[in-house]
Structure formats: structure tokens, C-alpha cells
Amino acid sequence: MSSLDETSTKILVLGDSCVGKTSLCHCIAGEPGRNYDSTIGATVIMAWHEYRAGTPEQRTELLELWDIGGMVAHRQAAQVFFEGAVGAILVHDLTNKRSEENLATWLTMLDGKPRAPKTSKDPAAVALKVDIESCNIPVLIVGTKADLVPHKGPVSYDRLHIDSLKNILRGSANSITLARFFDSCLDRTRRTSLSSSFFAANSRSMTPNTSIAGSGPNVTSSGAASNANVTNRTMSPFTTIPIGQS
Amino acid sequence: MEGNYDTWVVTASLILFFITGWIFYTKQLFKNYEVHNKFVQFIFSFTFSLSCSLFELIIFEIADVLDPVSRQNYWTNCLSIILFTLVVVIPIYMAFLSIQSLKFIQPKATLPLTLLFWIVFLYFFWKIGDPFPILSSKHGIFTIEQVISRVGVIGVTVMAVLSGFGAVNAPYTYMTIFMRPVEEIQAQQLEKRLIHAMDMIVSKKRKMARNQLELKRLNAEKSSKEPSFLSRLWSNFNEGVSETNLESQISRMESEIKPLETLSKYLFLELVELRNMLDRVKFSKTFLGMYFNVLGHFFSLYCIWKIFISFINIIFDRVGKVDPVTRLIEISVNYVGIDMDVRYWSQYISFFLVGVIAITSVRGLLITMAKFFVSISNIRSSNIIVLGFAQIMGMYFVSSVLLMRMNVPPQYRIILTQVLGKLQFNFYHRWFDVIFLISAVTSIVVFSIIRKSSDARFRH
Questions:
Q1: Which parts of chain B have pLDDT scores under 50?
Q2: B196 lies within 8 A of chain A by CB
Q3: Where is the stretch described as Disordered (chain A) (predicted)?
Q4: Which residues in chain B are contacts of A46 at CB distance < 8 A?
Q5: What is the ipTM of this complex?
Q6: Among the CATH numbers 3.40.50.300, 1.20.120.1810, 1.10.540.10, 1.10.3380.30, which is that of A9-199?
Q7: What pTM value is reported for the model?
Q8: B380: which chain A residues are within 8 Å (Cβ-Cβ)?
């Protein structure tokens, strides 16, 4: 079990103060509904995620969601937490347009490329300005407090509107986008399955995702069995580039 | 014709101040939030414009612009409206918003509760006048003098507290002899410690997450199986042991993680403070920083003199008889030997002085308000806080008009006395000195305590 203790992937959760980052992290981890105080510094919330669910390479992975406090006075010091992250979730408040405009500032903090946060009335223009394609790690943009603005829909397919007080339903568009994002983050880490033949033999022992009452969509009862298969990586099945052992 | 022109001037300036307040609201106060409640914005800008027009009317008095009769009317109107806003409109709306945000109050009960709160507020507002030598109720209840005397007490207290704190804070912030020598390497060491603490938290949470997963798996297996009686007994015994083992491990790890998280918060706050200090040291090496450093020396001398003078005033029960303007003219005529036309120059200088005081106090208050608001507000309470600020701002400006009387020569004092009514002005000056002294001394004590404790922390 000792090698399993080293495997977890760091994902940052960034955004202005009071947008709901801590609630969002607990919602992703499967325990929604509590009220949280303002985060000082960073808190880490662990969440399980089914990597490549439904394919032969399915594995259960552990994610560290680093919920970083967004207060303005702490912003410069918070950059100490950014090191080693493979993905970032930018959170804004759907009832507060300024928080969405400030996402450009957070993106600049991530990769250092200057972006001027200019204000604009058109939601599509504001969305375009936060150009996550130019960032070198996968970025997902999530709008919280969706229950307060039920009339608004997401601007594009890769934006999420989440109500953090409720569970994310399995099979909903939100859960699929989240799963795709976490998969792309995990792809960038130096960890993959063993050769596919080994997994073909074991695939019968993996039961499909059985959700346990009260928990979120990402915990399975066969997680422990599949975790035992994760060891060193020799070759990524998705590229032809051999990657060294981790 | 004169009346029309006067009305136009006053109305135009009111509108100009209103627009300034409106823009300040959106650009500075609410720069991180969306403005949902336009009524609060309106109240704030309205209070701001009325307060600025008070200053403007004083300047008009001294410079003798506009027709005196209409000036008197405008004074009375302006004062009545602003006092009405401060005592009636803002408290009621603040109480209404606060009660609305409380979850356990039924919607039907908000209006009666608001009125109840307002009546309680009025009672305490009235009672403020009792311990002080201001007008008794023999002189009527709803007159301007009664209200303004109480508003004056509160406003003078706020002014004195802010001045006392500012007098100590400004030299402390800008003068380099108070800055602690910190180096980049200390920040890096602190960062290393913080990252180490976070790594420990993460590894413990990993173990805990896997244990929790295992526990869930065991529970699910137990609930899904249908074994025979004996095997159930056996599995209960077996699984029970490993389950309680897991549970005890989980709770043990939780109790280990809590102090680590507290440590990480503490380290992070220290890192923030250290980075602030580094920024200040870097700033003090720039030209602007050196300029502020020199200014800080002069300003600290002025503050020490002010503290000393208010101390003397209280001890010897002396109220300054001579205002700065006349004193300046006296000095320049008697000691320096400049030959000046006293009347012309006294008007000019007092006009200038009042203008400078007005502008700096408006600007200082707005900047302080913006800084405080951005740091202490969150999205839920922003409206209530900004209404509180509007209230403080109104009281602050009304009482600075009151205290302005001390700074102008006697012929203009009469005008202010006429307008503001028969108030015990000397009392307000004495009260200002007392509160200023208390606030300055308290700030010095607090700053030295903070300094000592952070010195002890940063020594290693």
C-alpha cells in the first residue's frame, strides 16, 4: 500500500473571495451542503475520481483540490501554493460579474502572461477574454451559486454552472465536463496504466460504478482492487513517446 | 434675478457632487462586487453631495459669494435635509436591511421590527445629550439645534478617534526608523516551512482518504452480503475488528491534521506580513518613499506638538482664543515685519485654510473609507456596511463644520454661530481634545505592543 500513498494529483481552485470555492471543492468531493468560513491560506480537500471511466484503462485516482483563499491582501503570498499543480479550476460567482472579470488576473498569476482585465457588458466577450487556451496547464472555469440565477445558461459547452449545495448528478453534463477535465489533468502526470493486456485480463473483476448511498459519483467499491495495479509507467498507451519510469 | 442665479449655482454644484459620489461608489467602494441595490448607492451619493455642499456654503460665506439672505436659506435647508437623512432615512434602511438578512425572522414581521429598532435608536440618540452640557429639552425638541448638538457629539468623537489614530499611524508607516530590517531570505525560509507543513497535511489526508474508501468498501460489502448465521457471526467478529481499526485510524489522523492546519494558517499569515514589510522596505528606497520619509518626520513633529497642546488644553482648561489665521497674520506683522492689510489678507487666508481643510478631510475620509470597505466587507454585508459608512461620513462632515468655527477669524465665527444655532462650541473643542488624546495614546500603546510581539516572533 505504500506506493499508493504517493499518488495524488494537485489541482488548484482559484477565484475571488466569497465566490464559493470551498463549497465547490466539497461538492466535487461528494459532501455538499455545509456553510464554510472564509479560507485563510490554503486548505486541501481530497476527492476520488474515476480516470477514463468506462474504458479498459479505468482507474480510481485521488485528487488533491487545493482551495486557495482569494483575499486581495493575501494574493501575493498565495503564489507559494501554485508549485506542482497540474490543473486549475477558476471559480467565479454567477451573481457577481466582477468576479468573472477578475479571472483574467488569476490566470495571469498562474502563467505570468499579462492580460488586462477590461470590463465589458457582453457576457460572451467577457468569456472570450479569459483565454484559457493560452495557459500551459488545463484550466476549467466554473460559475457557482447557480441556484440564485436559474435563468442564466452557460456561455459555451466547456463552462460549468454549478449549485454547490447539491450533489453533482452522475451522467449530467456538469459531471461529464468535470470528468473530462480531471482526465486531461491526469494525462499530464507521469502515471498511466500498465500495458493494455494486463487490464484486459482484469477488466472482468472491475464492477461498473456502483454508487454508494450518500457519497458522490466518484467512489466505487472496486477502487481498492484497481489501485493495486498502479505502479511504474513504461509506455503511455495514448502516445508513442516512451516516458521514463516514475 | 439674483435668486435664480443663486439657485442655479447651488443646484449645479449639488448635482456635481452627487455624480462624484456615484462614481466613487462604483469605481472605488464596489470595485469587487456588482451593485445590486441602487437605492443604497443613491443614499450614499445623496449624503455625500449634501456634506460637500456644507463645505461649499462655508466657503461662500467667507468669500461673500451669493446673496446673504438666500445663503441663509440654503444653510437651513441643507442642514435640515442632511440631519433628516442621518437620523431618519439611514437608520431605518439599515435596520430594514439587517433584519431582512436574518434568516429566522418571518417576512411579515420585518416592518414592525424595523420601526421598533428605529424608535430604540431614537431613544438612545436622545439620551446621548444627557451627560453633556448641551441644550436641555426646554428649548424644544425638533429644532435643528437639538439634533445637531447630538450629531455633533457623535461626529466629533469619530473625528477625534480617526485623527488620533492617523496622527500615530502616519509616522509609523512612513518613517524608516520604525521599519524592521527584513530580508528576502527570511521570506524564503518561511515559505519552505509553509510548504513542508502543507506536504505533511497532504500526506496525512491521502492516508485518511484511502482509509475512508476502504471503510466504505467494507461497509458496502457487509450490507450487500447475505451469509448464513455462523458466517455472519464470524464476519462480524472479523470485519468489526478491522473496521474499528480503520475508524480509530481515521479519527486519529483527523486529530493530527487539525493542529497542522492551524499551523499552516499561522505560517501563511506571517508570510503575508513579511511580504508586506518587504514591499514597504522596497518602497522606502524609491524617491517617492524617501520623500514620504522626510514628510513623515515633519508630520510626526506636528503630531507630537498636537498631542502636547491638547494635553495642555485639558490640564489648564484653556480653549484656544486665537485662531490660526489671525495668529499667522499677527506673527507675520509683528515679528517678520511684513506690512499687510489685515482685513483683506485674513479673508483670503481663512478662505484658503477652510478650502484646504475641507478638501483634505473629504479626500482623507474617502480614501480611508475605500480601504476599510474593501478589506472588511464581503458580498453579503456590503450594503449594510456602506450605509454605516454613509452615516459616519455625514456625521463627520457636520461636525467638521462645527469645529471649523475655531479656525476662522471672529467676524466669520458670528456667521457660523448664527447658522448653527446656540451651541456650546467650547464644549465640542474640549471634547475633541480629550478624545484625540485618548485615541492617540491608545494607538501608541497598541502599536508598541504589536511591535514587541512581532519582534519576538521574527527574531529567529
A1: 460
A2: no
A3: 207-246
A4: 205-206, 208-209
A5: 0.72
A6: 3.40.50.300
A7: 0.72
A8: 18
